[in-house]
Amino acid sequence: MKATKTLILLLAVLLLASCHHPATTPDESTTVSYTDDYQHTVQIPCAPKRIVSTSPAVTEIIFALGAQNLLVGRTDFCVYPPQAQDIVSIGGISNLNVEKIVSLQPDLVISGSMIPQKSSTQLEQMGVPIVCVIEKQSFDGLYENISKIGQLVGRTQQADSLNRRMKEQLGELSHQLDSNTTGKPSVYYVVGFGSSGNFTAGGNSFINDIIDMAGGRNIASEVTGWSYSLEALMHADPDYIIIRREDSATFCRTLPYNRLSAVKKGQVIAIESGTIDLQVPRNLQAIRTINSHLKQ
């Protein structure tokens, strides 16, 4: 009788242990319904193990959250941080290699705004869940995207910490700018120029916010969208020009841009494109860089 009671007690302990310590955790075996920035609802894994990023901004944020070990694929344009280039590339963005993505056996694809709808549909039809986290019009949208990606990759605490640090750093910089009572110099950001047209960041863009927070006044702040006329640029004749580093030399020697006062005075700020074109934590670096030039 005593042996029987002991056996029953042992079985009960083993049963409780199996209930509290399952071989597979719920996060690994369940999915959750997620609605992305395009209001598309999809079932995604609670704890993805293999992620493909089709957005340079998404890739950079995943690295910033310390979740790069989950990345098994990225695009040719996902080159920051440099370690990202060690990850298998699935090609371009507008011409995604769907077959390559599927061959990597991802349990989640995170994309940006430039992915073609056709590619997204193909991935869904092949059983690969895909969600879109797109750039937002305001700078504050960066915090939102970091939080969303943190949720998707299981790094919510790291996302909260990153956002908190960024806000603190931005607050310190803003305090320094508040002491500047000399007024804001006029600024023009070159997105595109030449025979194909002139393009810049209008007032409804996070880049406009970056210029403003850096202590500048965007001459295109009244513009919605990206197109800007050459006549308006020459007439405004801004105090400073901001341009991607790789385009700076060509812009400065091309007519009629070389007639602008900013070019003649050497007040062209050649900036690393990824710090301002992408909505990423490095935007703070862009603010500091621009501000340092505007204060000279």
Helix and strand content put the structural class at alpha/beta
First-residue to last-residue Cα separation: 92 Å
**β-sheet strand percentage:** 5-15%
Counting H and I runs of at least 4 residues, what is the number of helices? 13
Taking the sheet with the most strands, its summary is:
4 strands, parallel
Spell out the helices and strands N to C: HHEEEHEHEHEHHEHEHEHHEHH
Helical content class: 40-55%
Number of strands: 10
Please give the oligomerization state of what you see: single chain
The average pLDDT score comes to: 89
Shape: globular
Any low-confidence stretches, pLDDT <50, length ≥5? 1-28
Q: What's the alpha carbon Rg, rounded to whole Å? A: 25 Å
Cross-sheet strand order for the largest sheet: 4-3-5-6
Please render the helix and strand layout as text.
Blueprint: H1 2-20, H2 26-29, E1 31-35, E2 41-45, E3 51-53, H3 56-64, E4 71-73, H4 98-103, E5 108-111, H5 117-125, E6 130-132, H6 141-152, H7 156-178, E7 186-190, H8 206-213, E8 217-218, H9 230-236, E9 240-244, H10 248-252, H11 261-264, E10 268-271, H12 274-277, H13 283-294
Parallel strand pairs: 3-4, 3-5, 5-6, 7-8, 7-9, 9-10
Antiparallel strand pairs: 1-2
Helix pairs in contact: 6-7
